[in-house]
Amino acid sequence: MVREAPPPDRLCSVCKKDGVYRCHGCFNEPLFCTDCCRIQHQRHPFHRISQWTGSFFQETSLLKVGLHIHLAHDGTPCPSSSTDYSSDVFQWSDTDDDIDDDYPEGPFIPPVRDPDQPAITIVDKSGVHSLSICYCHCPGALSRDMQLFQAGLFPASFTRPKTAFTFAVLDDFLLDNLECGTSAMNYYSKIRRLTSSIFPLMVPDRYRELMRAARQWRQCKLYKWHGFAHKDDQPKDGDLALFCPACPQPGINLDLSTGTVTQSDDTPSWLMTRYLVMDGNFKAEHMHPVNPSDEVSLMDGLGFMVSDDRYKSHLAIARDHVQRSDCNNHRAVNQANASRQRLEATGIGGCACARHGCFVPHSMVDFQKGERQMNMDYALSQALNYKTDGISRAITFYDINCQYNKYLKDRIASSMYLSIPIGMDIIPGIGLWHVHGHQDSCFVRYASNFIHGTGRIDGEIMETLWAPLNIISPSARGMGTPHRKEVLDYQMNDCNFMKMIRITKFLSRKLKEAIKGAAESKLAFDNLNETAQPDMVILWKEEEAIAHANRAEDPAAMDIYEVRLERGKSPTRKQQELRLLQAQNRTDHPVINPPGRRGAATWLATGLTIEESQISLSRDVKRLRTHPTDTQLLKVARCRDKLHAQITRFLEMAPTYLGGDVDVNDPDFPVIVRNSLEDNYEDYSDFDEDQNPGPDVHDASIFQPELTVIPLPSNIGEVRCRELGLTNLMKEEIALREGQANDALHAIRVHLGDKAVIFRNTVRSAKSQASSTRAWTQVRSVETAVNLNASIYSKCRSQLAKLPDHDLLTKYLPLKKEDLKASSVVADPNARGQRDITLSWFWSLDVQGDTSGNDWMTEFYRVNWLRTKALRDRWNEEVMLVKHEMQWSINFFKHRAKQWLGHMRDATSAGLTGHTCYAARQSHIYDQLAAHAEDSFRKMIVQLQVPVPVEVVVGTG
Question: How large is the average pLDDT for residues 167-175?
Answer without folding.
Answer: 94
